[in-house]
Amino acid sequence: MRLRYLPHRTTWFIIFMAAVAGIVAFIWLRPPPRSTVPISTSTLHLPKSPDIRVLTANINLLRPHEGIHSWAIRRTMLLKVLGRIRADIIGMQASTPAQTAWLAAHLSAYGHFPDGAAIHRNLISALAGPLSTWNQIWYRRDRFRRIAGTYGRVRPHHPQSNPTENTYFSLAVLHDRMRLFPDLIVLDVHLRHWETNAAKSAEKLHEILTKWQRRYPAAHAVLLGDMNHSRTEHAIYQALLGTPATVPLVDTFDYALHKPGQQWGTWENYTDHVYSPWPTDLIFVSPQLAHLPARIIPYHMPPSQYPSKHLFVLTVLTPGPVKK
Question: How does the average pLDDT of the chain come out, rounded?
């Protein structure tokens, strides 16, 4: 049997695509620069605290032509902020595969989920797969073991133009190695802007939580992320809280601590100005989980330098009964 030569154009196309793949692999998988100090277990708070520090952080997409706000500049500041916060669980939104690969090389103390490519049944789901991993759940390896997890889009037949705000979600079930807490079902999401779809997406999120709560009946839930909506948008906020028939949750912000005229917004858009009086990056937990009031983390960075457009939000889960 004689071998047939490929057409000239086909040969050059294959060579070109192989070169592109090689360049992408080099950029994503190259080792971290020596000038950047990774966050290893030794740099976190030791000995282990019985509390669990839970952070939600929209780190903003890697976009070209952002100048002083480019990812290449922001990523070092982000590591400094994360190193100062020392969270045990981080729900991260708007993290492209390239950003996640870079962070994985530097956050050696953490595992993350989704942590690899999935096998998809068709071309459309294969192309959408990388978008579905833009919400990452990070957890300290020495504190947690991941039991199970899933990810995807909440309402796959109702897309929105901005891909990161198509209500993609990631869910991980984490086991506390210290056995001070029950298993945690952590659901990380970037909720869409459109009000009608946002409310329906919030309801779908609780359907997902309910399904996993049935699989792990002793586990408690943590729902966190960039919700794009505050408590003033009643329908969406109530849907995020859930119902007794699904998985009831409580907002970790204590709004009674709000002082008149104080701005609690969490979106700054690379400025020192908060665009909303109420937070839109939120953390909800099961009522059985004792916690300290959520607080907004200031950056304390030089002028005009920000690790993200969003301020991050932290709550602390404490072992023991909930105070009435």
Answer: 84
